Amino acid sequence: MANLQRQWVVYLSGEIHSDWRERIQNGAQQANLNVSFVAPVTDHAKSDDCGVTILGAEENSFWHDQKGARMNAIRTRTLIENADIVVVRFGDKYRQWNAAFDAGFAAALGKSLITLHDPEINHALKEVDGAANAVCQTPEQVVEILQYVII
């Protein structure tokens, strides 16, 4: 039982347009779970422009995006590799290719994977959900899973 008392690291990947991260973090805090949450940079403009801000402007939008994506990958890969559990949230408004990539990367590493999305997009995510250990519809379900596996 002592092994379960360690601090767990949970990576929160996915859409940035709702309060799902805060709901999971608040729920875990209320449940007194020994969890540390990590995430990608969730400021869309900072994430998109970090490469050109640090390494210099690009005239071609492809290279503008590549610089940012490659710099963001340093953070994403490191945090996923060091996470105990990866939670990936898919919203219905935008296509989150990066979230799908994160889920696939986590699955390839053998990480415990939880997906979170509305049932309306079950079909589109059937392969991603097939690799997940759990498929949730609400952040509160994620908290309940964390409570079950951690306590």
Describe this structure in words.
- It is a single chain.
- With about 150 residues, this protein is an alpha/beta fold.
- It has one domain: Rossmann fold.
- About 50% of the residues lie in helices and about 15% in strands.
- The protein is built from six helices and five strands; from the N terminus they run βαβααβαβαβα.
- It has helices spanning about 20-30, 45-55, 60-80, 95-110, 125-130, 140-150, and strands spanning about 10-15, 35-40, 85-90, 110-115, 135.
- Strands 2-1-3-4-5 form a five-stranded parallel β-sheet, with helices on both faces.
- Helix 1 runs parallel beside helix 6 (about 140-150) and helix 2 (about 45-55) crosses helix 3.
Low-confidence stretches: none
| Radius of gyration, CA atoms, in whole angstroms | 16 Å
Number of strands: 5
Structural class: alpha/beta
Shape: globular
The CATH topology is: Rossmann fold
Global mean pLDDT: 94
How would a textbook summarize the main sheet?
5 strands, parallel
Brief account:
With 151 residues, the chain is α/β, with parallel strands linked by helices.
Give me some keywords for this one.
Rossmann fold; alpha/beta; five-stranded parallel beta sheet; 151 residues; 6 helices
